[in-house]
Amino acid sequence: MMKVAHLIDSGGLYGAEQVLLTLCKEQQQQGLHPIIVSCGLPGEALKPLEHAANDQHIDLIVWRMPAGLNRAGTLLLLNELNSRGVQLLNSHGYKFNILLGMLGKSKIGLPLVSTVHGYVKAKFPKKMWVYEFLDRIFLKRFDAIVLVSEKMREIPAFRNSKKVHVIKNGINSKEASLPSTLEGNPYQLLAIGRLSPEKGFDYLIKAVAEINKTETICQLTIYGEGSLRNSLAELISSLSQQNNIKLAGFIANAQQHFHRYQLIVMPSLTEGIPVTLLEAMRNKTPIIASAVGGIPEVLGVDSYGLLTPASTDSIVNKLRQWFSLSNEEKEAYVENNYQKYFLNFSAQGMGLHYLSLYSALKGAHK
User: Fold this and answer.
1) Is the confidence at residue 338, as pLDDT, over 70?
2) Does residue 35 sit within a domain?
């Protein structure tokens, strides 16, 4: 039984965390022993990911250490993992890409895999730019880099690298508990994600305000928390949309609420393969999404649901087009999305690809 440690510093229970939980459950079914190592700051309470791992009976190490390039804390963690017989490390995010890469393969002595769930492309001199710069340097020391979409191969840091593998995100094939409705008065829109610049929620808020200029046509709920909460709340107030747009905070297992909404809108500026997109397709909930990252790869490059590019005007135009479609046209779009999910983005397929990669790396390290 191969023991695999998945290392992450989680900021919530969003796409990367949901994929990780799904992967761990699939690996348990395969006979592997996955362990989630969830990092945080000293004294930090249990995170949503940690609660979810406990609820799903996934082995968990709650690791707390000071922030920064903490070599000593990382070595202590490695000693703990070695004492548990861990045979492979899979990093999820720049924090452990940097910390593990800083030590190097010879010091660690285990196969190193990094799963890159998305790439923000921050601008200098923001802190995230520094993290991404270090990330690009230290990823070169990993044995394998997993991207979640073919589109991500176009990122300069990953071009022409023999270490790069594409394993598309997968989710379980359970059916939605309740079907989504296609009509509403007003239409109920849903957006999900961290309240951060790359999610494009400011465009969406302005678009809803524009559509509602003369009468209330639609209302928007945004599930998520993040650094932009106050600025987005101020934007909603400045547009006099407090009655139509709600910042609902973080919601665990948001898909349980999909049936309350007629449309999900994803105006992201950058993405990998978002779990919300796959969940909407599986649950037969209509979705329109930016043509960035792996989204066109999932929906199809000629899909009706693509926003090109994400902007206030493009969202306004797409929403008005959607509202004007017949129920038959909407149903056909939803069914087509479901078939694409079913054929290409299952949890079982994702798990098998990871197992093949791990096995190859273990063989090379003997």
Assistant:
1) yes
2) yes
